Amino acid sequence: MSGVEEAVPGTAASAASVASAAALRRVHADRARSAYDRAAATCRQAGITEDAAQPVPTSPVGRAAGALRLSAGSIEALAASAPDPAADARCARNAAAAAALAAQVAAAQDAGEGAASALRAALAASRAAADAAGGRAPGRDAALNATADEAERRAVTAAHTAGWIA
User: What pLDDT does 50 receive?
Assistant: First the structure.
């Protein structure tokens, strides 16, 4: 079974599908938490507070704060729901997008090469997370998930180097 077909409940294929979904949940949840932590740290570094979130964002700061708030809600919902690789991957994608928005604000405040590198890494992590959340098997493609995980590790390293993460 490729993971794209539906498993029949009560069968060995169904049990394997549930185990696979649980394993994918851990992969996506770990990436989502990492990206959220990176976004929160970058927001703190850039002076972005939760109260800067706007229902209809009119500034980069408002967009970053709003995205961070939405990501926190998605991660909370992830913990309370059954594993769903597509939804779990979208949660990780949204957290990576929030981190990219925060990185844009932080990089605009810091003209250093470390900030520019961290911004590039954040954008790459966001793109990789979006790729992993899309396609014919959303959230289930091992190669895309591995690429997204590696891009997230690089973004964390670059954010540390830029001084955005203590």
Answer: 86
